[in-house]
User: What shape does this take?
Amino acid sequence: MIKKTSLLWMSIGSMLIAQNITKIEYDGLHSLSPNTIAEISGIKVGDTLSESKIQESVKNLSDQGYFKDVRVETKDGGVIVYHFVEKLAIANAQINGYGSDEESNKLIEEMGLKRGELLDDAKMQKAKEVLQAKLAKDGIYDATVDVKTEAVGEGSVSLIFDVKKGEKVKIAKVIFNGIHALSKSDLESSLVNKEEDFLGWLPFRNNGVANLSQLENDVYRIKDTYMKYGYIDAQISKPNVQVDSTNHATIEYNIVEGNRYNVGDISIIQSVEGLDNNKLSDGLSLKKGKVFNIDKMRHDITFLQEQTANLGYAFATVVPQFAKNDSNDAVNIQFVITPGTKVTINDVIVSGNNQTQDSVVRRYIYLAPGDLFSQTDLKDSKNALGRTGFFEKYDIVPQKLSEDKMNLLVNVKEAPTGSFAIGGGYGSYEGAMINASVSDSNIFGTGIDTSFGVDYSKVSTNFNLHLANPRVWDSLYSLSLDLSKKKYDFTDYSLDQSSGSLTAGRQFLRNFYAYGGITYSDNQSEIINPDNVDPIYRLLYNDKYKKAAGILGIKFDNTDDYYTPRNGFIASLNAEIAALDGTLNEDHKLPENGGYTDFGDFVKFNAKFGAYYGLQDAIDYDLILRYKARVGYLSSTDGYVPVAERLFLGGVGSLRGYDSYSVSPTIENATGTISRVGGTKSFSNSIEASIPVSEEAKIRLTFFADYGIIGSDDFYGHSYDNINRSSAGAVVEWISPFGPINFVFAKAINPKDGDMTSSFEFSMGSKF
Assistant: This one.
């Protein structure tokens, strides 16, 4: 707290009244300049010297929050001297005796200690309370915290927190007296303080360490569990805790369960124009005749509040009122909606976007100045910001200005979106080699996605160019261009491929996106020595043809983040309608190889689906469950469809644990050589569980299980049975400064003879 100002008058007050200020001196200033102080004080040379003016200047200075104390001294001749005792600035902070450096740094941030901020008693007290609460949460018993300060230069200080840990308390037993309707496991599952699980040291298991600061809240968690099963009158005593000499605790609760209630009549009391009680009732989770559940009631309150807020009533409240009927153990529920006043958006204020243009941020905000507030629009705006991939952190905070006005504060922290790489080398075959690539999904903050890469040596010339504008002139239309050229003269085969595509699209209904485009590719690759070529490539690069195709597709995406979604769905369906032209290899015309006379046109369908569910709110742990599925189907005329256009499984994109393009129908020639020829129908899916490893480094660990099946119509004069494979493993997912990186460790579960398996894979640039 700022001390009261003491005015030291060195001459008689009556003599000061007629004096003017001739000089102003400042003593004790370190952080602020005299010019700044003069501006704040409002006192300048030439002013009449008066006690009221000086007191007002001191108040102005004290209100800035920079000083512990401000004193004013007057001297003969109209000289004023301001004496300051500045608050110390925080140079740095450290915690000794607590966890790793990463854990300590994260805790210092939670304590509110930021370098450069001023230190006062309130900030210090808050920091100690946060640290002590964290120790209690970790089950540290009788921990003490000593704080030391060390001067760093003039006007700043280093804070050192020395933690002297007591012993961790382990919970030996939890006793619930008086339980009949629910089991011990039902009650203990929701508690923070509970007995250690079997193999409690594993992730997702409880290690039994007490969090003593949560004991009081555990009482409410038990009550909450009973109310999920309809026991709304359940009474739970305060916990009786006994800790023995080995720091093992026994926690005992006394419980009176009461009767179980079903839901009786449900009514909604409201007078909001545009709200239909019948439609609102249809959306409620609680149903008459069913067992009362407090979680469903909370869902209904949120639902009713959101429906009301969607009509502009941002500050609407929903209060449930109960009327118990003990004769039939039913509880009637009346939801009373008080809408308040309709709220309009005064302004949308964007901050934190140092590079990204304001217009790019605002295109994803579905509320603009003058609009009526909508809770759904606010939620969708947050999700849209997350799906861009431009921001590491993002939030939209309503700022109430009055009963009918609010600002939206859009706070973002930009993520790295660009990367540059250059390399080179020398080989006896290729000679000098150079490769370089540059990419940015938000170049110059415009929201335009660009990438360019080139590889060059005496035997190769490869490049690729990608340009995509997802919102042309801030409209709902998109446009993208892709060009690539691959030319490589291998010893055993030559690779010569050129392709280009132009695609246009449009966003519909906020979460839907439709697109169409044209592609053209020219493949003039050639196998020179089939016996020395990897069987995967033997037929992929042995067809010379040109392809012109049209592409149509639709996509739905309501996820809440681009790289690591925790809620929502992604679904897409696209079709490629292709016409081929070229000269068939003579081998394809042989009867045993199908007797083809020409290339065939085809239609290829690809569908993808992803579902994401985060459990942070349910279990207070950032576990993310994922389900992904992919379907492919190819339909063609009677002509020959090149192997490179057919379907394959294997690799990071479909079936981990098997080499890319390796899971496929095969043929065997007269010499016993096996070649993979691809399929015409495929399905793969995976289930995943992802947990955080390091939030600071943005690393997660994901466990997965994959299953895929692929089949083919008659091809090359052969008929094929369906092939199914499965795998399991783990992925280290890292959102690096260069983009997302996957390190995949996989085990093929049911490989067959001839399968090409892979225990480690690496990918960069793909979403998780």
